[in-house]
Amino acid sequence: MNGVPKKNKIDPTEARRVVGRVLGENVRQHRSSYTVAVFAMLAVALSTAFVAYIFKDVINKIYYERREDLIIPISLGILAAFVIRGVATYVQSVTMAKVGNSIVARYQHRIFDHLMKLGLDFYHDTRSAQLAARINQNIGGVRELLDIVVTTIGKDIPTLIALVGTMILLDPLLSLFALLIGPPVLLTVRYLTKRLRVIHRESVTLNSHLLGAMQEATQGIAIVKAFTMEDQLRGKISKLITRAEERANKISRVSERLTPVTELIAGTAIASMIMYTGFRAVYDAQPPGAMFSFITAVLLAYDPVRRLARVQVGLERSLVNARMIYEILDIEPRQADSIGAVPITVPNGEVQFDNVSFGYGNGIQVLHNVSFTADAGKTTAIVGASGAGKSTLIGLVQRFYDIDGGRILVDGQDIAHVSKRSLRQSIAYVSQQPYLFEGTIADNIRYGRPDATDEEVIEAAKLANADEFIIKQPQSYGTEVGENGITLSGGQRQRLSIARAIVRNASILLLDEATSALDNESEKRVQQALERSMQGRTTIVIAHRLSTIVNADHIVVMEAGRVVEEGVHETLLARPNGVYARFYQLQGKDESPIILMDEDETAERMGPTE
Ligand code: ADP
Question: Which residues are listed as membrane-spanning (predicted)?
Fold first, then answer.
């Protein structure tokens, strides 16, 4: 198994290792931002300490010594300390958020690049939808982990230590006074949450776009690889990542606005109370110091206590997230180009299987000594019951997997020694289930060849019988398809994927004929499109339809991973007791587009052949 490993418990050593790795990979790069954040945190702690300290003077100098000259400077000093605290908290939070968002973006780039490098074996063992969701949540977790570590150590613990000493001395009865600043803060919170809801909504839409695009790329990985679309997709994903990053920064700017506002309200309230009680103390000789210190201490201690209470839970969750990210990033791509791999040149496109043996690495051999040649420019149909190994053959031509024995030659060159990219660039692939990616119709065709001109795209669409329905779409070739785009019928999707293969202009065409029945008209158009796409190309087709098989230049009959018969329709039919002939007698005479030789029950009906 080569999918994402699953483990649930984390021991303390591993937890330390994960935290260490997250910090090691991210802190250095953001050194200057972290310096700003730490200075802001120090300013917060110092201004908090100043407030606690000044209360000694408030009580001693104002209430007992009745120094009228100090009332206003001390009150203003306290107000100033709160303003500094508010601004410093704002700076620290926005800086931390910026760093966090950039870390998210960086992990997203890393993960996507890594996913594009991993072989199909990884995707066979992993569910792509879950993978996408996992990535999304887990990256958030890594960022949270950093936030928790820096905020807790840098700010909350020192602040709390300073305040706890003061709080021990306090009178619980005075807590009622704290309620006075409640209403204005609540009003501010309500206003800001409303604003946040709107922005957050936009952000969620954008993120799901991003998720969708990633999910599609991973689900259609066979096509991405076959058409070497990695670079194009990377560019598209990069843009979405940048937009999501900007949105996330905006959210933090708005939500953090709450902090300076509440600090200002609290500061003003406390400063005015001090002025009020100060003047009263001077003129009426009533010392209300306990009340001030209580309110101040409660307000100042509230935030760090709340955060510290959540640290444990948050840290646990983040650790799990961070570890899951590394589980993906640590998977080694198995199938690299061989050392000294050269680009392949494919002038004709002859494909030769020479004694090929292969298994998927689970101990079961899937192909046994398969040999056949798909002549250049001709159509070779592969037929056989389900599980015979037809799709495996198609995958091996594209070198999705390395074979265990024998050779696969393309125009005489062993594909094991050429670069995968150049090999796949000389191949066009039409899968059984047509896959469309988020983007316009033109984008989807152009994935076949990024430098195709608009004229070439339209020409390919015309050959694929797709132009006729494309020009009827709201924005013609510019119409969005995929998750949030228009819905196309099965036949239309197939024709688009054929246009993508035509525009690629490759000498080899690999075709997995659809087994799902379309209505007659649609069927005819798809069939015609396929015939046009095959012209002048070496075509290897997993054939299900009688007409495709009968018209093929060469038929290869597979059974349980072996080639059992080869030839053209007439000669195969003429063999007494041949596999193909027996099959044809059973169900092939009918000219309708029936599914030939791909149903398990068909194989059963044929009975044992050995
Ligand atoms: P066909 O296309 O003729 O239906 P396949 O080439 O898909 O046959 O499958 C041939 C055999 O290989 C089957 O026994 C199938 O179970 C097995 N197989 C196919 N894909 C995988 C895979 N990714 N991992 C393990 N076994 C596989």
Answer: 34-55, 70-91
